[in-house]
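Per reviewer request, we include the raw input and output of the structure prediction for the construct analysed in the revised manuscript.
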Amino acid sequence: MRSARSNIAFTVTLGAALLLGAVLMAVILLASGAPDAVAIGLVLAAIPVGPVIGCYLWLDRYEPEPRSLLLLGLGWGAFIATSAAIFLQAFDAFAFGPGEAVESVLVAPVTEEAAKGLFILLLLLYRRAELDGILDGIVYAGMVGVGFAFTENILYLSSAYIGEDNQPGGLDNAIALFVVRGIGSPFAHPFFTAFVGIGVGIAVGSRSRQVRILAPTLGYLLAVGSHAAWNGSLLIDGGSGAIAAYLLLMVPAFFVMVAFAVWSRRREGVLLATSLTDCAGRGFLDAREVPWLTRIPARKACRKHAARHGGPEALAAMKSYQVEAIELGFLHHRFLRGTAPARYEELGQAHVQRMFALRPQLVWPQVAGALR
C-alpha cells in the first residue's frame, strides 16, 4: 500500500512539474513576439522526433517499458530539463557573466546533462523496479534527450528564422540550421545523456555500493565531456571544425553506442531465456512456453496464431501474458543476481497470479508441442 501511494505521489509530482515546465516554455516561446517563427521552428523541430523515437522503441522490444514512463521522460526533456537549463544558464550569465566559449563548452553541458539525467536518477530512486539494466537506461535517456532536443530546436530554429546578431533571417536560414541539427545530428542529445543511462543501468545490476555510486557519476561526467567536446568543435574556426569533429568523433562514437545498444538487447534475450527457464523449473510457467517468450519473432507468431484461432480476446490475452511473463523473467534475473528490488516477492507473485488467470484464455501454436 505504501509503495502504491509512493508511485502515485511520484506520478502526480512529475505531472505537476511537467505542467509547470510546459507553462514556462510557452511563456519563453511567446515572449519572442514572432508566432510565425515559432510555428516554423515547431514544424521543423518535429520532423526528426518520430524516427528517433522509433529507434528507441525498437531497442525496447524485449521488455517494453511502461508507455506512461516513456512519455514522462519525453515530457521531462521537452519541458522541465529545457526550462531548468535555461534558468540555470541565465542565472550563471547574470551572476558571473561568462563569455560565449565558457557558456557553450562548460556551463551548457554541465547544466543540461544534469537537468536531463535527473529524470533517470529519479527513476533509480523511486521506480527502481522499472529499471532492469543498461538497455533500460539507454532507452529512458533517449526519450529525455529527444524531448530536450525538440524544444531546444524550436528555440534555435525560430531564432534562425528571425535573424539575430546581424545575421540575416528567413526560411532559408532556418532550413540550413535544420539540416545541421535535425538531419545531421538528431541523436546528439540522446547520445550524450545515454552515458548517464548506462551508468544508472550498471548501478541497478551491481551488488557493490561503490559501483552503484561511481557508475552514475562517471556516466554523468562522460555525458558532460562528450557534450562539451561537441559544443567546442562548433567554435573552432567559426564552426568549420564541426565537420571534422562530426566525422572523426561523433560518427564513430555514435556507431559504437549503437553497437553497444544492439549487443545489450541481444544479451537481454539470453538473460531472459535463462531466467524464464529457471522460473519454469520452479513451477511458475510451463517450460514449453519459454521458446515462445524469449524471441521476438516467436512472440509475433504467437499473437498471429491467437488472433487467427481465438479472435480478439485470445490476442489480448496473449499480449498480456507475454508482458507479465517477460516482466517476471527480468525481475527473476535480478533475484538470481542478488540485486532484486525490495518488493521482489510482492511484484513476482502479482505477475504469477496474473499469468495464472490469463492461462485458460491462451491459444498457443502447436509447432513446439501440445501446449494448446
